Amino acid sequence: FASAQGGHxxxxxxxxxxSMIIDPWGxxxxxxxxxxxxxxxxxDLAAQRTVRSQLPALTHRKIAVGPAR
Length: 69
Known about the structure:
By secondary structure, this protein is α+β, with helices and mostly antiparallel strands. Helices cover 14% and strands 22% of the residues. It contains one helix and four strands, in the order ββββα. The strands form two sheets. A two-stranded antiparallel ribbon has the order 1-2. The chain has a two-stranded antiparallel sheet with strand order 3-4. The two termini are 31 Å apart.
């Protein structure tokens, strides 16, 4: 999920939004191009299990307590 701010802000700054939902392989599943909106995508749990077996990023986590070594 990539949420993004959109609108006009003090000082003339403008942000464009472009919120989206992207799968682990970079495919855009849903997006809100600009302005207010809602991005909705279906979560395929079987596909999620497959991706986690092909892209085992969670096994690379290191949870450390104390100063980094």
